[in-house]
Amino acid sequence: MNILGFCILAGIVVMVAGAVYITKMIMEAKAKIAALASGKKNHSVVLPLRLQAYERMALFLERIDPNQLVLRIHAVGLTVSQEQNLLLMAIRSEFEHNLSQQIYISDVVWEKIVDAKTDIESIINTVAGDFDKDADSREFAETLLSVAAEKPVVEMAIHILKADMQKWAY
């Protein structure tokens, strides 16, 4: 009977261990399913925010494009210095308004957007440096547009933005 009792006890231990193992596997599977479901929910929340950020950054780039910027800012009677300052303030204001969007955009794209902003500011400052600060801004605006046309900074940044967005959208 001792051997039979020992065999029965060993069998019970094996069954309990098996039940514990199976229960553990079921619990882990349920946890994985819950994590996947949560990830899908998180994805359904984050993806629209990410796409909105790409849209806003495309709009930002369009708004700081010298062609659009000069149309909005240029006014008869401004001096070169006044127009230069207004253009730069408009760029900085647009940038600050959209600064938070960087958390939804890849680092590479954000860097290209910042580079585009910096390049446009540099073009404005370089062109303004070629004029008397108190001169009428009409010729400054025309020169700025022609110099900016030679360096399509915004178009390059938008191209990179669109390419990166395609990874997330589809």
Net shape: rod-shaped
Low-confidence region ranges: none
Domain unit count: 1
Helix-strand sequence: HHHHHH
Portion in helices: over 70%
Quick one: how many beta strands? 0
Percent strand? under 5%
Count of helical stretches = 6
Radius of gyration over all CA atoms, rounded = 31 Å
Structure description:
The protein has 170 residues and is mainly α. It contains 6 helices and no strands. The protein has one domain.
Task: Label this structure with key terms.
170 residues, mainly alpha, 6 helices, 0% strand
Task: Give me the secondary-structure topology.
Layout: H1 2-64, H2 66-73, H3 80-98, H4 107-129, H5 137-150, H6 153-169
Write a brief caption for the model.
With 170 residues, the chain is mainly α.
